[in-house]
Every structure is written in structure tokens, then in C-alpha cells.
Amino acid sequence: MKTFKKIMIRVLAILLALAVVLVGTVYALWHNEIATVASMKLLRERNDAHLDGAVYTMHVKGDFYLDDFVAQGGVKNDSELIAFVTEKITKGLLDIGISDPEIGCSSFTAKTPEGDVLFGRNYDFSKTNTCIVFTEANEGRHATISSVDLQFLGMDVDQNVTSLMDKITCLAATYAPLDGINDAGVSCGIYMTYQGGETTVATNQNTDKPDFTSTTLLRLILDYADDVEEAVEIASRYDLHDSAKTSYHYMVADASGRSAILEWTAGTDATDNDGGKRELKVIYNDQDAHIGDMEAATDYQVITNFVLQPGYYADSPAEDQKGLDRYERIYEELNLTGGIVADEAAAMDILGIVGRRTWKNDDGNGCTVHSAVYNLTDRTMMWVPNENYGDPAAVYTFSLEQSR
Q: Does residue 160 lie in a domain region?
């Protein structure tokens, strides 16, 4: 009997040691991912009658392997991005899906009477769950806040994110931002452009430069850019590969008041049907007289869903300029005060004017998923889901001040 007890004690000790080793191994491999998943919180319940998806926050621990992503030269498509994220984040044990959105949006820059620089953005699409993602500052990289549409990670738009697998999949959200701000006071957003004539053609550059997809380029700007010039320099270093069979342009702004619109074009809308021939064109807010008299007379910028390059739509009908009506309406509102708005709430009011519930819905997007006003001076974000502007409980403010 004593011998049996000794054997059992020895077996239990071995099993306990194995368990400790296993737990230690899991912690060593996934401690940042475990902490990130544990941080995911429900911020606002869904309201299907109002087309409101659920809203979550997630605080990402660690560097989420972005430096490794850059070192390998990025990726050319979503499949390569999925392979990278699956290998790095789940160590090859779980598959994660990512795709880029077909979206209709509006953005503008403005200032407050005190001189604070604001960046406003509407994200128009369809009912979806959203996550506000926080990342930490690392050596050579900025802390950030960004907005992510979770349906492009494969989340069911009609269900909350509840299962462990769904939450693990949300670890990929860092690679799918649609807009955001960093602790240097740089904001950036992405907007669909419908380039290529009758059929939209994605930008698909193929030179000897490293490769990046639409949302991963935005991630690079948020993490590495100290100002607009660095954002432009980052964009110029890479070949852009738009996915989801569509095309995009970007707006970027910084705390100095400088902003720029980044577009990739080759020819006009009638001939711009080879995504491999497109080249980066940059429109700065203080160097845009070639765009038009309205733009030349102002220091603020507006962007929606049409290409701003002069003559781009010369051989095309006016309706090809998607979002032109919203573009002109925002400029009209800003021109009333010379681009000065009282505060973030006043900037949010302008976003409300061109929201899906108050503006004619000519692009098939069912709702304004979120409206965000980034204060680039204070490094804060005011964020409202789906035009719930009148509900104080739906107005959220987040800050990066502590990361400066």
C-alpha cells in the first residue's frame, strides 16, 4: 500500500509539473493575446430596430507583430495578410479572416476658436458591430485609437461578439482600421473612390517596393507617422494593393493644421482601368489651388468618395462623382465660419448634416455606422454610433493625452 501511495504521489507530482509547464508555455506564447482578449468589453448594446450594432472596446497588449509585418515587406492581398496574422497571433492554430470594405464616407478638417485642430469623419455602410481599438506605444511607434468594422473580420452583423473564438478573431482588428489618431496628433481615414469607369478597379501597384493593402497602410501611418509629411513619405515607400475589388483614397492631418489627400490615379475615369499603372498623387491643404477656387481659398480640406484630381471626370457623367453633393454641402457649412467650429460637438453637427438619415442615400449604404471627431491638439476622440447624436449616453470621448 505504501508503495502504491508513493507511485500515486509521484504520478501526481509529474502531472502537476506538466500542467505548470503547459500553463507557462501558453503564457509565454500568448500572454499579450490573452490580456488583449480579456480586455474586450461591450460598450453599447445593439439596437436592431435602429440598425445599431454592438460597440466594443479592446486594449491591445504588446506590439501585435507590426514590426515583423514591415520587415517581411508587407503583403499583396488579404490572403497573405490572413496567413501572417494566423501565424503570428494564433501561432498557426486558428484561422482568422480579414477583408476590406466597400464604403461611402465623408471627412473634413477644421479648427476651434482656440486653435485646436479637428478631423471629422463619417463612416457610412450598413449595420455592423464595431470595435474601438487602443494600441500601446512601443519603441519607434505611437499609441493609437482606431475604429474597426468587425464584419470585415467575419463577425456576424446580427449577433454580439460572445464566443471565445470570435474574441480571438478580433485580435486581427489592429490590421483593419478605418480611421484613427495617434499620440503625435496624426489622424487618418480611408474612403472608397469607385475608380475604373463602369467597373471599379482596385489599385494594384507592382514595382520593386514593399507591398501593403488598404487598411494596413493606414495602420502604418498611425503607428509610425509623426506628421503629415511622414505619412506621405510612408505611403510613397510602398506599393498599394486595394482589395475587395474596389479602390480607395485617404485623408491625413496633423496637429499643426497641415492635411493632405492621398490618391492613386492613372489617366481619367474613362481610362483609369489598370490598377497597376496608378501613381500616388498628394493634395496638400495649402497647395490645392489646382483643384478649384473653393479649395484654393481655404486652409481646411474635405473628402468624400470621388477623385479630386483635375479633369479626372472630364469624359464621364456627373453622377460618377460619388459624394460630390456631400462634399459641396460640407464646404458650404465650413465656409460660413471660415473653417472655424466652436468645438467637437459643433464639428459633430456638421457630420450629422451629411449622415445617412438626413442625406439622400445615393450609394446604397444603409446607415452611418459611426461619426468621429478627432482633436489633434488634445489627442482626443469624440465618437458617436449611428447618428445617435441626441443621446448623451451614446457620445463617447477617449484620450491619448497620457501617452504623449
A: yes
